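The following record pairs a protein chain with its ligand, pyridoxal-5'-phosphate.
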Amino acid sequence: MYRFKPELRIPGPVPVPSEVSLQMARPVINHRGAVFKERFPAVLSRLQLIFGTKNPVYMITGSGTAGMETAVANLVSPGTPVLCLVGGFFGKRWAELCTAYKAQVHVLEFPWDRGVDPDQVAEFLQQHPEIELIFVVYNESSTAVLNDVQAVAKARGDHQALLVVDAVSALGGAPCEMDAWGLDVVVSAAQKCLMMPPGAAFIALSERARAYLEKCDSSRYYFDLRKYEQFLAKGETPFTPNIHIVFALEETLKMLETEGLDNVYARHALMRDMTRAGIRALGLELLVSDRDASPTLTAVKHPQADEFRQRIRKKYGVEFAGGQGTHAGKVFRIGHMGYATPLDVLTALAVLEVELQKFGQATEAAERVLAAR
Ligand SMILES: Cc1ncc(COP(=O)(O)O)c(C=O)c1O
């Protein structure tokens, strides 16, 4: 086990490029000073391209869940009828947050190995014209399913409900066209495809969602988006922000812009396809069908998933993630998002082959990898 070089193959936090890490070591500056006021709005506006919106993007200092709670705190009043689309752990989190804010919560459950079904959503909405908000997860990290949020938006048709999307493990790894697809709120976070350390969430709102927010009467303070809006007009945040994430974001955006977003998405799709082909060749079973497969992580069935990945962690220092919820102990998850290349996929597959070989399941390719050690 090599402690000096963490080999993270988990669905976030992801490895951070050294250019980005260096930004985290810069001197602290005054978050009410001229330099910050100039740089902060400029960098946030560059995120708009990745969100696919012409509307402002706000930064909340906190983890991805802080971004999710910001959405709920600003939209859900006690008794608001909401629909949560639940096909995994993070869909469930939307329902828990809405319950915490005293919404009237309706849940449409989907199997924890496939995408939400837009037809069922359309049918439910037809029977429930009173629903005001729909909550969905774009990339369900607990199952490695990429939900077709564009199809969900289409299924909504001219129903009044606003569509709120958790894009925490999708944004920067899968295309997001918030305005064109009709998504009303999109939430993301620093430590996934945006290749930064944890510590910031990002949120954007459609004009409709911005107007709706005015009638929300939930108790909120730190997460009150109206404060973030007022302060962003001055180039600031209402509370002391994670200043270093702002520096890091400048660097990460430079990298993504240089690569080109289409190339970034193509790289993620390639890593998905390589991982899936490799897992199949190893004789292991994928949790999710090709149709619903995530470009940012892959879930693999294994009867002793936890022991298997602990052994790999101990022997080779490579970290895979465990299963969540109903998949705990039966699935392991391979992250291939953000600062990741096809070579990272090859090394992940190699380590799986070598370990499987020890248990008499080696393929010819594994024999070659072993011979090279
Ligand atoms: C899809 C999704 N939503 C929300 C979260 C929560 O983010 P955080 O752990 O940063 O609060 C995660 C984290 O893994 C996630 O993958």
